Amino acid sequence: MSPKNQFSSVLMLALLVLAASACKKDKEEEPPVSNIIYITENITQATTWQTGNIYVIQAWDLWVKDILTIQPGVIVKFSSAGPDMNLSDDGVILANGTASAPIIFTSIRDDAHGGDNNGDGNSTAAATGDWSTVDLNGTDGSIFSYCQFYYGGKDNKSTLSVSSGSDANISHCTFVLND
C-alpha cells in the first residue's frame, strides 16, 4: 500500500471512530424514557405513584379505597374508554405537585404531556371529554396542589368533582379543555 493510500485509510478510520463516538455521546445525552405503568385494579392499600412515571388508568371505574400519594411530576393518563377515578371508604388522594413539577391528569391521546403513550402517532388527538372525572365522592382529606387537568369531563361531569359533601384542599390547579 502506498503511503498516500495508507494515510487515506488511517484518516478514514479516524473519521469513522470520531463519528461513532459523536453518535454515542448524542445518544447518552437523550433524556431517559419514563416508565409507563398500567392501572387495572382498584387502590385498596396505601400506594405511591412515583415521579418519573406515567400511570395509564385502564380500569373503567377505578376506586381509590386507601391513601394514594401522587408525587410531583407524575402524569396520569386515562384510557380512551372514558374512565372515572372515584374515592370510597377511606380513600384519599394526596397530589402535591410543585410549580416546576405539576401533576398532570389527562387523556391517553394527549401526546403533549408524556408523549405518545398509546402508540398511534398522529392518528388520534386529545379532545374535550376524552375521560370523565376524579370524584371525591363524599370523602374528606384529599389534597390537589399544583395539578393540571386536561381533556376530562365526559358526559358533562366535572373533571374534579367535590361531590356529596366532600372536603378537600385544592390550590394552584389548572383546568384546560374540559367539558
List keywords for this structure.
179 residues, alpha/beta, six-stranded parallel beta sheet, five-stranded parallel beta sheet, 15 strands
Portion in beta strands: 25-35%
Total beta strand runs: 15
Give the fraction of residues assigned to helices.
10-25%
N-to-C series of helices and strands: HEEEEEEEEEEEEEEE
Helix and strand composition category: alpha/beta
Write up what this structure looks like.
- It is a single chain.
- The protein contains one helix and 15 strands, in the order αβββββββββββββββ.
- The strands form three sheets. The protein has a six-stranded parallel β-sheet, with no helix packed on it. Strands 2-5-8-11-14 form a five-stranded parallel β-sheet, with no helix packed on it.
- It has one helix at 3-29; strands at 35-39, 47-49, 53-57, 61-64, 67-70, 75-78, 84-87, 92-96, 103-107, 134-135, 140-145, 147-150, 160-161, 167-171, 174-176.
- The model is unreliable at 4-32 (pLDDT under 50).
Ordered list of secondary-structure elements with their pairings:
Blueprint: H1 3-29, E1 35-39, E2 47-49, E3 53-57, E4 61-64, E5 67-70, E6 75-78, E7 84-87, E8 92-96, E9 103-107, E10 134-135, E11 140-145, E12 147-150, E13 160-161, E14 167-171, E15 174-176
Parallel strand pairs: 1-3, 2-5, 3-6, 4-7, 5-8, 6-9, 7-10, 8-11, 9-12, 10-13, 11-14, 12-15
Summarize the structure.
This protein has one helix spanning 3-29, and strands at 35-39, 47-49, 53-57, 61-64, 67-70, 75-78, 84-87, 92-96, 103-107, 134-135, 140-145, 147-150, 160-161, 167-171, 174-176. With 179 residues, it is an alpha/beta fold.
